[in-house]
Design goal:
Elements (H helix, E strand, L loop, with lengths): L1 H4 L1 H14 L6 H13 L4 H14 L5 H15 L2 H21 L2 H11 L8 H14 L3
Amino acid sequence: FLYANMAGKDDYQDFKVALNDLKLNSKPLINFLTILAEEKMHNAPQIVRAIEERIIETKGEHVLPTLYVLDSIVKNLRSSVYVQLFETKLPVLFSNAFHKVDERTRSSMFKLRQTWPPFFTNLSLYNLDTRTHDIDPA
């Protein structure tokens, strides 16, 4: 009974712990996190919050793998719930991540962003581009 009442909190903690294990671009771990996000879709806001917090709190070298998790969830689950939740904060998250990383990682982030037009609105991507252009005009 007690566990049932805390399911949302536990899902958030479980996802956050798994996400914190993601230190480099590990396809198996990214796939695992994507499956976990699918299984816990009823707690999508908590899953999205865990990813947002990871991007904001982590060091530069761990940002790109976390963005790959976001990308994998959006592209593989094709859930409007996840897309809408990520989209509201995408420009801020992406620019926050962009601030922390080196030129090589920025190039990888740019390539990733180029794949997003089918998933996110033009307005959201425009805002993302404007924010990153302010950081790095290149």
